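Sat 14:20. Reprocessing the chain from the morning session after the first attempt stalled halfway. Input below, unchanged.
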Amino acid sequence: MIHAFARRVPAILAALVLMTGIASAQKVTLAIGGASCLCYLPTMLAYELGEYKKAGVDVEMVEFKGGSEALKAVMGGSADVVSGYFDHTVNLAAKGQKLQSIVVYDRFPGFALVVSPKHTDAIKSIKDLAGKKIGVSAPGSSTDFFLKYILSKNGVDPNSIGVIGVGLGATAVAAMEQGSVEAAIMLDPAVTLLQGKNKDLRILSDTRTQKDTLAVFGGEYPGGALYTQTEWIEKNPKAAEGLAKAIVSTLKWIHSHTPEEIMAKMPERLIGSDKALYLAALKNTLPMYSETGLMDPKGAQAVLAVFSQSSPEVAKANIDLSQTYTNKFVEQAMKTN
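Finished this time. Tokens:
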């Protein structure tokens, strides 16, 4: 009997350790600004791969139509962390709000300014958008910021257009096909899905590749990141480190697997009915994902430069960019990964 029990001790201890680990995993509510968008794939994939749990974080995902709505959830206290675009931390710094990104998963934003197939004849250039209705994921989201920037850069008054929230996935495609907006800021897989149905789709500006991003912004421009209020990070450093570690592990997994293997891990509801087009969109998007999770200080500077052009409030504010992100959790994750 004693020998039998002795043989079972390691298994019992292992079970106890596992139970303790599960019990001690910190619950984190993660607000995501559009789960179907490939720009957010690393966040969703980390969940499917079980990387959050491995890193000691029990993540509950809450989905929103756009980044501005996900941000409101965190600012209002109904969520802990946003999976959204880094530029919100810069924009809010100008208003005296302290937010920091803890890991960056998109090296460039992936925005495309696309003309509705029903309005291709009338709209040939960005200048033709004056006075038109233009779709964004949600007013106040990064898609809205980008729209205002690209209009200003091309001599169109951003106040002359009507901004309409159309979401990022099927709702955006439907709005464009119906012509209820003349153009929209879209991301993949929606751009590739619309292009698959409309071969002559007109794209007026594109930041889905490094080359195009450099042409638009003059440098790399960080997109998707996990960010939250600095106060939360200070109170929950272990959870922040766990989230960073989960995303860093997922980015490594992405860059060591085929697009087909990545798609196989994603939920069916996010892939949609046309798997071939989703796969094509995923192949287009893969270069966008960071290989390290680190914020490039030059990228943060590019975000500030863009916002300074389109927002007088940001231009006037003396923003300390080093307070809008931290690389320490990613650096810690790299040592243990």
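The radius of gyration is 21 Å.
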